[in-house]
Design brief:
Layout: E1 4-5, E2 10-11, E3 15-17, E4 22-23, E5 28-29, E6 33-35, E7 40-41, E8 46-47, E9 52-53, E10 58-59, E11 64-65, E12 70-71, E13 76-77, E14 82-83, E15 112-113, E16 118-119, E17 124-125, E18 130-131, E19 136-137, E20 142-143, E21 151-154, E22 159-164, E23 170-173, E24 182-186, E25 193-197, E26 200-205
Parallel strand pairs: 1-4, 2-5, 3-6, 4-7, 5-8, 6-9, 7-10, 8-11, 9-12, 10-13, 12-15, 13-16, 14-17, 15-18, 16-19, 17-20, 19-21
Antiparallel strand pairs: 21-22, 22-23, 24-25, 25-26
Amino acid sequence: MSGQVHPTALVEDGVELGIGTRVWSHVHVRGPSRIGRDCIVGEKSYIAYGVEIGDRVKINAFVYICTGVVIEDGVMVSAGTIFTNDRFPRATTPDLTELLASEPDEQTEGARVCAGATLGAGVRVGPGVEIGRFAMVGMGALVTRAVPAHHLVVGQPARSIGAVCRCGRPLLRFEAGAAPAEKALHCASCDEHYLFSAGQVERRGGPAS
């Protein structure tokens, strides 16, 4: 195991921890799981077994990441974010006589957060959801369905209200809640160019690699 682990953190056997990754106080990481290079895991966060986390991921304090979640490179997971993986959660059998096991089964549905996306503070992510590349999820949002790449979503349940650049700056706000059919977009902050068409954001060039 590589990386820097605070003395109060519990990193179980079977955890793959990348070089340069820092795990702060009272974190619990269960094995087997993988955390890539140069990541930060903030204090009192919990990462279940079966979780895969890419490189250069920021996980703030009090984050709960359940079994089956995949977080790709360069993702920001802000404080208090909670992932879920069970659409029909129950504690017991229907007759209430037997406690159900906590292990994943055929109904377990992990979420995926694609590269470069940001989850704001207090976000809730539902089972089986995919959050697209460089998407931005506003604080306190409840994500119950897929978020397209570069979309800005807010609310409970979360809904798209615009589009954002790779750098995070807003590119477009939907007027009266309606997305345009097609529109060329330009980020004045980093000089990236995009095309918004049929609800999708396609990068058309700029200084970023």
